[in-house]
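Methods — Computational structure assignment.
A single polypeptide chain was analysed. Its primary sequence is given first, followed by the predicted tertiary structure written as structure tokens.
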Amino acid sequence: MTTLLLEIYGVDFVDQPMVEDLGIPLFVEKCISVIEATGMDSLGIYRLSGNAGLIADLKEKIDQDIGKVNFANPVTYDKDVNVITGLLKTYFREMPDPLMTFHYYDSLLAAASTNSFPPAPFQSIRSHSCFSF
């Protein structure tokens, strides 16, 4: 297994180990893969909480070395996809800056309040963002 000695939680998005072809953090890709493979038929997938103790334990293991956490093995997360969604929600909650940064906040509000698509403020965000839409 690959050893990645980099904290995952509480670290800026751009400082994360990325999946090269996708431009998203490795951790996010691993979580989404599990969710798509095992949880798409689950109700309240992001609303319901997984076991808090298991989430905390896995979070610590992930921060020590994400390469040693076997996301492909359902036993890792007690066969409960809500543990994975809990890890992912915690990851986004603990980011030092939100995904849509404060710099774009007013543009996001303007984009959300318009009826045209794509809204002009959104075009501005798209041209400056690290995300491709």
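Note: Residues 100-133 form one domain.
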